[in-house]
Design brief:
The protein is α+β, with helices and mostly antiparallel strands. The chain has a single domain (3-116), classed as 2,3-Dihydroxybiphenyl 1,2-Dioxygenase, domain 1 (Roll), CATH 3.10.180. It has two helices and eight strands; from the N terminus they run E-H-E-E-E-E-H-E-E-E. The chain has helices at residues 13-24, 73-82, and strands at 3-10, 26-29, 36-41, 47-52, 64-69, 91-92, 97-102, 108-112. The protein has an eight-stranded mixed β-sheet with strand order 2-3-4-1-5-8-7-6. The longest helix has 12 residues, at 13-24. The two termini are 22 Å apart.
């Protein structure tokens, strides 16, 4: 399964967006009422998803989350549960569903149908 999205939690979203646009050539894609700013590379590759960090988050602590594109999040999570990996409850985004878990080293991971949503 492809790894196409990486969420970066930022204390200052606009500063982070400007940094990746200026130095790495990403282009910001924004949707009204969406809390995530997608940064798209001109030559393809993974998208950076810039999300506002929570007040309690410290720099370097849970600042990155790996997001795996899954068309049917509910079915994927149910299958994982049968094999010992339990995801959080399903969360509804703007036209998509996602769920969170942690890898063995406690790194944040997510499965999301965001890439499959209809425009």
């Amino acid at each position: 399964m492809p790894l196409n999205q990486i969420i970066l939690y930022a204390k200052d979203v606009e500063q982070t967006v400007a940094f990746y646009e200026k130095f790495f050539g990403f282009r910001a894609s924004r949707e009204e009422s969406d809390r995530i700013v997608e940064l798209v590379a001109a030559d393809g590759g993974a998208r950076l998803m810039i999300h506002q960090a929570g007040r309690a988050q410290k720099a370097g602590q849970s600042q990155v989350k790996l997001v795996f594109d899954v068309e049917d999040v509910e079915a994927f999570c149910a299958n994982c549960k049968r094999h010992g990996l339990v995801f959080s409850a399903l969360h509804q985004g703007q036209g998509y569903v996602f769920a969170n878990a942690r890898d063995p080293d406690k790194n944040s991971i997510s499965v999301s149908s965001r890439a499959y949503r209809k425009s």
